[in-house]
Specification:
By secondary structure, the protein is an alpha+beta fold. It folds into 4 domains: 32 residues; 190 residues, Penicillin-binding protein 2a (Domain 2) (Alpha-Beta Complex), CATH 3.90.1310.10; 329 residues, DD-peptidase/beta-lactamase superfamily (Beta-lactamase, 3-Layer(aba) Sandwich), CATH 3.40.710.10; 65 residues, no CATH class. It is built from 24 helices and 20 strands. The strands form 7 sheets. The chain has a 5-stranded antiparallel β-sheet with strand order 12-11-20-19-18, sandwiched between helices. Strands 1-8-9 form a 3-stranded antiparallel β-sheet. It has a 3-stranded mixed β-sheet with strand order 2-10-16, with no helix packed on it. A hairpin with a 6-residue loop joins strand 13 and strand 14. The protein is elongated.
Length: 699
Amino acid sequence: MSVFNQSRSNIIRLIFLGLFLIIIAQLFNLQVIQGKYKVLAMENAVFAKVKYPDRGIIYDRKNRPILNNTIMYDLVVVPNEAKKTDTFGLCEILGIDTAEYNKRIIEARFKNGPYRPSIFEDLLEPQLQARLDENIWKFPGFALVERPVRVYPFNAAAHIMGYIGEADSNIIKRSGGFYHMGDYVGRNGLEAYYERVLMGQRGVEFLLKDNKNRLVGNYEKGRYDTPAVRGRNLHTYIDIELQQLAEKLINGKLGAVVALDPKTGGILAMASGPNYDPNTLTGPNKQKNYSRMVLDVKSPLLNRAIQGFYPPGSTYKPLGALIGLDEGVINQNSGISCTGAYYGCNKVVHCLEHWAGHSANLRLSIAHSCNSFFSDVFRKTIDNPEYRSARTGMVKWTEYMNKFGLGHRIGVDLPSEIGGNVPDTTQYDKEYRRSWNSCTMVTIGIGQDKLTATPLQMANAMAIVANKGYYYIPHFVKNFENETEQDTAMKKYRVKHEVLTHIPNDVYDIVQEGMQDVVEHGTAQVARIPGINMCAKTGTAENKTVLDGRVIQLKDNSMFVCFAPREDPKICVAVVVQNAGYGATWAAPIASLVVEKYLTDSIRAERLPEIKRISEANIIPDYFERLQFKTDSLRARKWFDLTKDSNYIRKYVPRQRITTSAKKQTPPPAAPVVMKPAKDVMINENLYAKRSTTDKRNP
């Protein structure tokens, strides 16, 4: 062979060797490094079934489970594997049409990608789940996945427990990818606040599929499976029987009840009205029930105990007395001559008591809730000669209020708490152009003007009075399972806040004696419990609202705060019943029953009719009927403007006033109809309800 031919032969060999090496390298890259086809093969032959963990259980103070877990099923889909599914058969089982089917598939692709499972139909009814289980082999790409869901055996504590729901894109983004589509997370209440404790850890079970997409067993005998780790349990201060009683008493009313242990800050009960059954937000009908409650103008989802802000009314007066005593502007013998009004300012402050001597000293003034006395005390506090200006006196008063836990969030272990309002110099400077004095806001002395607080703040302020200067941040959870030093969630609730312990005990004794007189022979004798020394204060707060452009004077809010026993306080209670009249009418009996139940673990037989009377009374303001009508009709109008669909709006507007674009296209052309403005259309004078009470839109 010539040298030339040998050289060409070697070159050809080298070319083939190079091609062979490239093929080997590419095979190594595909099979070992990238593993793409191995993954595709695995996806065709193996189904990764997510095992959702049981969430932790929440117990009351006597170790009774307030909520528990049960199993339901979700229908999940992997869009890229569902191309050959029996679409019509699945739609027939689910009761949907193909348009809805295609919409859900597109949503699944958009939310979670074509290769990852997404929920197609969640929390299936048992009958539907059984039918799908029999036919799932007909639907490649679909599978049934177990889902632990909550059940509430006591049907109570909805606002405290909160609810769980599927993680949306915002939650997933904020978690840095920790959550996936299909994960359930706490959306409110303790479920949300202690999510990391309750959630547990997901597991995965790998199952083999046959050529008909049927699951036929474990892959590699479960070698690669990871078990789900259940969440940790919470142990709380809640007394579930006390909680049920509080919810029963606030039924048919707008308001809230809060009971806490002043020695620990542990919340024993927290009820908000209107209430709802927590089981309505679990199971297959949860979305329908949630939507219904969102559209209710009475806001049953709102926890008024931490989100409702109210003028505290006369329940502020014990705080005002302590401030005045500590500042040295009054003493226990201080009094005022009151004949039914305070005339120290151009603004007359009326008092309900007219008889001589009811405000002869501090103790009597607290017992009989004299507005004149406490208006004068507030002015003396602001105009304290020691500070030489009302501005400095106002700053000092604001500091006291903040120490009592008002004007800022307390830090309860629930999301969405609001802080109420303690007015300061900046608010009055803005409104009165820096030209104001103690008479400008004199009604703060009786808990009105711009001063507002939540029921939880009122209860916590009473805890400070009961403890003679200190408090623990109110909270529900006492501890949780397997708590370690790395768990920091509970640390802030175990810190003692000595905010007003510099005030001598004998000063607190003076105020507590007056508060005990409120129950013994003052404005709250109805709250008296034999054998128990209770310190309390009634309160009322005036209300107005605007409806249909009219200012409406409403009934006062009924307020009551108390603690007992005086010698060794074990419970503090705050009750607000909106637009229900005097504090002794509704709020005081409710608080008294809660105290008696907690301290004696029973209710006297003679008080059972009182429970029946209160629980069956519906005193939700009548004007809500009108407000609901207006709100629904405006929603209908907006829907009509967007869609020209008149079915919804027909309930609220006479037929002759409805015009649609379709009518304009129908020959012969109809005579033009002049529509009144939406506001005029929606108002029906015959639908005005009684206006004895209302909400003031302070939820």
